[in-house]
Amino acid sequence: MLRFGPDHGPVVIAAAPLFEEANRTRAAMVDVLRRLAARGIGGALPDLPGTNESLVPTEEATLADWRAAFAAAAATLPEAVFAMAWRGGALIDGDAALAARWHLSPVSGAAQHRELMRVRQLGGGEDYAGNRLSPTFVDELGTALPSTRGMVRTARLADDPRDAVVRLPGRALWRGSEPAVDAVLQEAVASDILQWIATCAG
User: Fold this and answer.
1) Which end of the chain, N or C, is less packed with Cβ atoms under 10 Å?
2) From CA 10, how far away is CA 201, in angstroms rounded?
3) Cβ(75)–Cβ(15) under 8 Å?
4) Does residue 187 or residue 134 have the better pLDDT?
């Protein structure tokens, strides 16, 4: 787990988008956590089973494993803990004990499932854009929904017409062909989260 900022006070734990979208947005999410750390808010970005530095093979992981691992990582952090989930990351934070949740462009598991099936068909193989997933994971994903427990703030990009509490400037980095950053988006995310934490604590 990457750890940023002070080891006391509010801390933001990040849930990255799923699969290839995680690769495209990781640097941007880390930058947001660094911006928050510079303003006195702690941050954490855990590696879930089968991702990044995890020793668990990707094909052995399940969505339930990811939720449990995220909850366990959150439980190691000082109170109060806030989640920052982008896209499919909003499907992961539901089991964690959190002060509140901040979701950027959350998507349903069904939407992610359709995208995985499309990518698999285009690739013509048994994997999903290079990811070998268990049938259990794929089945779980099909019915998963972003958590609505407690206080949830939904943010979307300015050109996204779906319901949101706040609309932010910047690019949809998860749609890019390569990993990228967008200083405008990252500053907007960090600023909104900072104000939101202050509101929750107030």
Assistant:
1) C
2) 9
3) no
4) 187
Pairing of strands 42-45, 100-104: unpaired
- Tell me how far apart the alpha carbons of residues 17 and 87 are, in angstroms, rounded to a whole number: 5
Tell if the pTM clears 0.85, that is, is over it.
yes
pLDDT tens-place string over residues 15-33 = 999 988 999 999 999 999 9
Measured CA to CA in angstroms, residue 76 lies from 37, 81, 94 at distances of 18, 10, 16
The arrangement of strands across the sheet holding 42-45 comes to 2-4, 42-45, 11-15, 81-86, 100-104, 152-157, 166-168
The band of 202, judged by pLDDT with boundaries at 50, 70 and 90, is: low
What is the DSSP annotation of 35-65?
A: HHHHTT-EEEEPPPTTSTT-SS-GGG--HHH
- Per DSSP (E only), the strands in the chain are 2-4, 11-15, 42-45, 81-86, 100-104, 152-157, 166-168
Q: How many CA atoms lie within 13 A of 163 on its CB side?
A: 2
**Total Cβ atoms within 10 A of residue 60:** 14
Length of the chain: 202
Backbone angles phi and psi of 93, in degrees to 5: -85, 0
Q: What 3-state class would DSSP assign to 93?
A: helix
Residue 131 in this model has a pLDDT that exceeds 90? no
In angstroms, the Cα distances linking 33 to 18, 58, 117, 145, 191 are 18, 26, 32, 25, 11
